[in-house]
Amino acid sequence: MDFPIFHLDFFGDRLLIAVIAVIHVIINHGLAVGFLPLITLMEYRGYKATQNGFPEWEKWDKLAYKFMFVAFVITTTIGALTGVGIWFSAALISPASIGSLIRIFFLAWFIEWIIFMLEVIFIMIYFLTWKKSNKDLATKKKHIIAGAALSVFSWLTMAIIVGILGFMMNSGSWIEQKSLLTGFTNPMYLPQLAFRTPMAFVMAGSVAFFLTFLFLRNDFEFKKIVLKNIAYWMFIWTPHVFFAGIYYYSLIPDLMLTNLPVAVATQAFQQWYDSLLYYLIAAIIVSMISTIWFSLKPKRVPVFAAIIPILVIIITMGTFERIREFVRKPFVLEDYMYSNQLLLDDYKIFQNDGVLKHATYTSTPEVTKDNMLEAGKNVFDITCSRCHTHHNVNSVVRKFEKLFSPNGEPLDKQKMKDYIPVMHKGRYYMPPFPGNEKETEALVEYILSIQKTNVNIPGAQVNGVQISPLHKK
Ligand code: HEC
Q1: Fold assignment, 13-331
Q2: Beta strand 337-338 pairing with 331-333
Q3: Mean pLDDT throughout 426-450?
Q4: To which H or E segment does residue 338 belong?
Q5: Is 347 exposed, middle or buried (0-12, 13-18, 19+ CB in 10 A)?
Q6: What residues pair up with 343 in beta bridges, in sequence order?
Q7: Rounded CA separation 392/443 (Å)
Q8: Cα(399) to centroid of ligand 1, in Å?
Q9: Which of 458, 386, 331 has the alpha carbon at shortest distance from 1?
């Protein structure tokens, strides 16, 4: 609306953010937030062993260093790139919502940035001074303290961002009293943090199991000791995942069901919602069985089997993120801004005047007989393109065909026209149509016209932009 519309017509805009974000979350939780404290504890274990005169200290230290090497390489490359990637992709696809979030959470993000810088400094110190720290016990102690500080900073960056993610799902009392504090202390904040924290620890434990099998192939005695210690870690954290997961899960329906206008949508949601519980239970069972198996019968475990708990946890985490995104729809900022980036408060004006009149970037500020298709394309860009492509992922044409012409009959213009103004009632995750009657008509004409073509229609990044004549002054 106020920004040129970037659009990926093949992949879909939503999927771009989702893929980058899910990779980032898996690396952040599994190899930073959860893994760094585990590595520090392993190093501490080696330190304690030296103090007590046990010879295996060096083995603990070497293994912890190898783990840290993996964590360092992946978090500072793919982890950091996907972190920045979330910003780039979200700012391209949803600039208005990112703009609002920055205004609301400026201070929180500023503090997060400082903590992130400290995290980067500490990861450098911790990884690069590791070998030198083996000089004597006093230096080693300082090194372990650096590892502990790194672990705390890593958790803190997540703890701040989760406040913002929670706000997007449920803005709580912020609507009445707009302040950073009311936004940050939203009802979804603590349940999400309570769930993500032990989840990160369990993910890290699964990664540690796998790396132990990978790195300690021949040293059987030591491998057994390490696996037993990781098993303790898993036994401590897995129940937390379960209880926090149930806590989080129990908070979703109350919020959602009040929002759900129709039974069909309830069922669709119910399936999603139940899948979270099934994955959660499956993840807990797999994680417990593999923990017992890996620690009691390590000789019988092939390396590839050690990947299974990692995969199950990745699927659970992906489902969790999907549900989180699903639950907040049709909003991008709950009760304030719809996913099409338009504010709830502006809807009355748009539905009356038409969205095109108020759009900065449109070649047609008004629908006329002569510009029907062009205006329809502009309406599609503004009102549907954040979630639909023309012909590919979540294709708008296919959606209408599935709805109104399951047997291939031609699409019925009138049915489409009647559907659009009430589409949010049938599918509550879609925002209401913000345009007026003429714009509905133009949109329908446009969708019918592209039904016959099969080409991808890219966004402003390829087609360039045109400023609305009404806004040129
Ligand atoms: C916030 C994202 C979002 C926006 C904006 C959006 N849609 Fe949808 N729409 C969806 C999703 C998600 C689905 C369902 C996909 C599925 O499960 O198959 C859907 C489904 C549909 C369906 C099929 C409905 C059914 O009952 O099967 C139609 C038709 C449709 N959209 C048209 C539109 C049109 C036209 C616009 C623009 C005016 C639009 N949508 C805007 C997300 C959106």
Answers
A1: Formate dehydrogenase/DMSO reductase fold (1.20.1630)
A2: antiparallel
A3: 93
A4: strand 337-338
A5: middle
A6: 337
A7: 18
A8: 7
A9: 386
Two tokens at 378? 């502009």
Q: Which atom, in ligand 1's list, is nearest to the CA of 435?
A: 38
Q: Which residue, among 39, 36, 64, 326, has the nearest Cα to 197 in the 3D structure? A: 36
Assign 227 to helix, strand or coil: helix
**220-257 vs 57-74: helix crossing angle, rounded to 10:** 40
| CATH class given for the domain over 344-471 | mainly alpha
Mean pLDDT of 44-63: 89
CB atoms within 10 A of CB 2: 12
Angle (nearest 5°) at CA 24 between 20 and 30: 150
* Tokens found for residue 370: 């002569």
Q: Which residues have CB under 6 Å of ligand 1?
A: 329-330, 339-340, 383-384, 386-388, 394, 396, 399-400, 402-403, 420, 423, 426-427, 429-431, 433
**Ligand 1: centre distance to CA 66 (Å):** 48
- % of the chain surpassing 70 pLDDT: 96
Q: For residue 321, what are its two tokens?
A: 């993120």
Q: What is the 13 CA–ligand 1 centroid distance (Å)?
A: 14
**Nearest protein Cα to ligand 1, atom 7:** 430
pLDDT by residue (tens digit) across 385-400? 999 999 999 999 999 9
Structure pTM?
0.91
For the chain, domain boundaries: 13-331, 344-471
User: Which residue type occupies 36?
Assistant: L
